[in-house]
Each structure stands twice: as C-alpha cells, then as structure tokens.
C-alpha cells in the first residue's frame, strides 16, 4: 500500500517558488543573482498599516477569531466593494482567508465534483490548474495569443463551455502577462456567460489597483449585474498594499457558497492571523492616496523593461495594461544555442541557461501554460532592472 496520496500525482510544486528558491540558494553561495521571479512589491507595508498591526498586538487581539474573518474586516471589505466596484454585499457574503490562494482553493474544494470542468485562459497563474485538480475537477486550459494581447475571445469561451463546465476562472490584470480586459472586452465574455446559466464565474482581481495609463479596471459582476448571483469576486491586500507576508485574501459571493467555503476553512486552517486581519482593516479603511503613485512607479518600470527587452535580439515584449509582469516571446530564440553551448529548445532551457550564464532568474513560460515565453516581475529597483535587462541582451546576442 503506497504511503503518499495518489492525489499528489495530479499536481506539481509551484514553479515560481522553485525559481525564487534556486535564485536564493545561488545568491547564498556567492553568485551575483538578480531575481525577477518573485511576484511581490519591493517596498514596505505602509506605516499606518504597520502601526495597526502593532496596535492589534498591544490591544490583545492575538486570540482565535471567527473562522472566516472578524466583523470589522468584513465590514471594511463590504465598503471596499461598494466604493471601488459599485457592488453591494453584506458581511454574510464575505469570506476572509489566509491569502487569495486559500480563498480560491476553498471555493474549489467546496464546489467541485469528479468530472466538473473549470475553464482557465492560458497563460495562467501557476496554481490555478493544480488547485482544480486537488479539488477533484478537470482544468480546461484555453490558449490565448500574443497577437490578441493574451486575451480570451468570446468565441473561444463559447467553444470551451460544455454541460460539465462549472466555473470560468478569470484574472485581470493577469499574472503572468499583465493583460487587462477593457469594459467592452469583458462585456463580450459576460454576454457568453449569460447564455450558459450553469457556469459560475470566479474572478481573481488581486491586481485591481495596479493599472496604467487610461486603462479602467472593471470586474464581471460590475459589468453584468445579472451575473451577481453566480460570481465569486476574489481580491486581497497582498499586492496593492505591499502585504504579501501578512496573508490576507478575501472574496464576496452568494451566501450559500460563502457558507460552504467557511466549512472547508473550519476544518483546515481555521481563522487567518488575527493581527493581520486588524492591519487589513486599516489597509482598506485608511488612506488610499499612495495607490496611484505606486501604480505610476510600476508603470515607469514597465516601460523601462518593455523597451529594454524589445532591444534584445529574438525577444518580442508586448506592453501590458497592469500588474507588475511582462511576458515576452522568445520564439525567435528557439533552436539556437547559448554562447556556452546550451541548446535552447524550450523556454525552460532558456530560463535555466540565462540563470546559469548571467545570474538573472526568470520563470519559464511552460509553467504558466503557454510557450515559448518567460515571465519577468519588475517589482524591483530601476538599477536592478536595468542591469538584468543588459545581461539578458548580452545573453541573447550570444545565441547562434
């Protein structure tokens, strides 16, 4: 009798974490490594939010809380959805988890049965398909294209829906591409969903406040109010508020679904960290004036990286609407060899050779379900980004 669960055979470890770990190991060994793999802001949590966390400790808020969030945080989340997305929810429709990942996982565990399908546009965040598999469902990954700016079309969505489809999982702006759907582009998708009332919508809005230029963020239940009763809108404080380590994610949806998710969480982690919850109340209720300057900072970095990568032989880098990632194509590099003789036959081979030869750590495109590409996180300093792009250019110039 095998000791380990057969469920583990269906999933793989997170490639983004693996890249970050390998980069850290090389750096610890004395190698000059520039890590462009981690998806987290490089600045500190705002001082007022830090102070709220410290005050929570001083005020004795260090005990168990309600399984899926304290009342103060649920009220703050309701206010946030009304303020930012024009969506009305009650606290009974809110679930708070240990990061957005747990919230998504809870929803899948609470709703998926064997044979249920989940439509996921590719490229996708690396954890989506594996969470579906852990929940017993079947991921149906639909490839998008560089030519369409990595956005799923209404025709593709329509063709992917079957009687077994339970969820459509949607992420805008996207990790890994940064692609953001406009109101009209999203309306075309919601029009399709309106014709298929058995399909629920799970929308990951984690990068909502990191959008650039004239792009306006919108979310499916806002674009099509008739989808409200079958939409789970997921968000969190990790990215916009530089609180990745605090581990607070949340979602709003039908009370029946939220209750089922609470049951899953009650038998897994129970409540999120009490201190982090009080800090998240301050994040959502406190001053929001730093969000726009932070987005502007990332927009400048985006332009720096896009311009530098497009100057590299064999690389084509589109300009994303948001988040802090770019997803350049290396189609013209495939089949060549590096200056040190490594055959670049896949994007994984490209990323591996790039790290070993130059010390620049990126994540290969196959991890996100679409090749031949790689992901760069530009959530680091201008100096680091400039040096990293210079090394990538030297590496590409050496391919033959």
TrEMBL record:
Q: Name the Gene Ontology molecular function terms of this record.
A: L-aspartate:2-oxoglutarate aminotransferase activity; pyridoxal phosphate binding
Question: Transferase as a keyword?
Answer: yes
What high-level taxonomic lineage is stated for the organism? Bacteria, Pseudomonadati, Pseudomonadota, Alphaproteobacteria, Rhodobacterales
Name all Aminotransferase class I/classII large domain ranges: 32-392
Which family does the record assign?
A: Belongs to the class-I pyridoxal-phosphate-dependent aminotransferase family.
What PROSITE patterns does UniProt report for this protein, alphabetically?
Answer: AA_TRANSFER_CLASS_1
Q: Please report a single Pfam family linked to this protein.
A: Aminotran_1_2
Q: Organism, per UniProt?
A: Cognatiyoonia koreensis
Enzyme Commission designation: 2.6.1.-
Q: Which cofactor does it need?
A: pyridoxal 5'-phosphate
| Keywords assigned by UniProt, alphabetized | Aminotransferase, Pyridoxal phosphate, Transferase
Protein name, UniProt field:
Aminotransferase
Q: Which catalytic reaction applies to this protein? A: L-aspartate + 2-oxoglutarate = oxaloacetate + L-glutamate
Can you supply a Gene Ontology BP term from the record? amino acid metabolic process
Q: How does it assemble?
A: Homodimer.
